[in-house]
Design brief:
The complex is a heterodimer of chains A (120) and B (111).
Chain A lengths: L2 E4 L3 E3 L5 E8 L7 E7 L5 E8 L5 E3 L7 E6 L4 E6 L8 E8 L9 E2 L3 E5 L2
Parallel strand pairs in A: 2-11
Antiparallel strand pairs in A: 1-3, 3-8, 4-5, 4-9, 5-6, 7-8, 9-10, 9-11
Chain B lengths: L8 E4 L5 E6 L11 E6 L6 E4 L13 E6 L2 E6 L8 E8 L6 E3 L3 E5 L1
Parallel strand pairs in B: 1-9
Antiparallel strand pairs in B: 2-6, 3-4, 3-7, 5-6, 7-8, 7-9
The chains are: A mainly beta (120), B mainly beta (111).
């Protein structure tokens, strides 16, 4: 069965970086897109960016440009999201999600979420 | 890219129907068929319930239906059940710069 399993919770200080991983299984990794979506406490969903596991093409939300990098490791069927220069308003649950095309917004499987807390 | 506009809350009694709106622009909701809806319970990951405006994934009850008129997409939940109490989010491909945009979310309460 399709599974997306994310790395564990993180606590970081302002200005630091965090890397969250999303290990996939149960499907052909390179046939799909992985997107990252975050949710601040009590708030809605915010799309962060996507990457094609096939060719590495990627796109990021404008507000995060320059601070976020999404990568894939096809050998381990894992996607990674790194966010730099962390601020308190980056405190959120971060999700990875799968879609077949980069524009179809058909996120059919999600990771369990990773809580990232930014606090001094 | 601005978030899509959803009402913050909606409610209905068991057995009734409720419709949640999602208003965007001709660049996102009104510009193509890539609009989806997600159901989210507290502390859980979202689950897709509608894609391509009105299509239902396998296993999603037909009580959930999607539609669109102009720049506004809608999710209708018919025959409300207690288990439908959750947060609902719309999502759309936004076209410009290959972006994706979510709605602010609607908390559905079953009275």
């Amino acid at each position: 069965q399709v599974q997306l399993v994310q790395s564990g919770a993180e606590v970081k200080k302002p200005g630091a970086s965090v890397k969250v991983s999303c290990k996939t299984s149960g499907y052909t990794f390179t046939n799909y897109i992985i997107s990252w979506v975050r949710q601040a406490p009590g708030q809605g969903l915010e799309w962060m960016g996507w990457i094609s596991a096939y060719n590495g093409n990627r796109n990021y939300a404008q507000k995060l440009q320059g601070r976020v990098t999404i990568t894939t490791d096809t050998a381990t069927s894992t996607a990674n999201m790194e966010l730099r220069s962390l601020r308190s308003d980056d405190t959120a649950v971060y999700y990875c999600a799968r879609s077949f095309n980069w524009n179809d917004v058909q996120f059919d499987y999600w990771g369990q979420g990773t809580l990232v807390t930014v606090s001094s | 890219q601005s978030a899509l506009t959803q009402p913050p809350s909606a409610s209905g009694s068991p057995g009734q129907s409720v419709t949640i709106s999602c208003t965007g622009t001709s660049s996102d909701v009104g510009g193509h068929n890539f609009v989806s809806w997600y159901q989210q319970y507290p502390g859980k990951a979202p689950k897709i319930i509608i894609y391509e405006v009105y299509k239902r994934p396998s296993g999603v009850p037909d009580r959930f239906s999607g539609s669109r008129s102009g720049n506004t997409a809608s999710l209708t939940v018919s025959g409300l059940q207690a288990e439908d109490e959750a947060d609902y989010y719309c999502c759309s491909y936004a076209g410009s710069n290959n972006n994706v945009v979510f709605g602010g979310g609607t908390k559905l309460t079953v009275l």
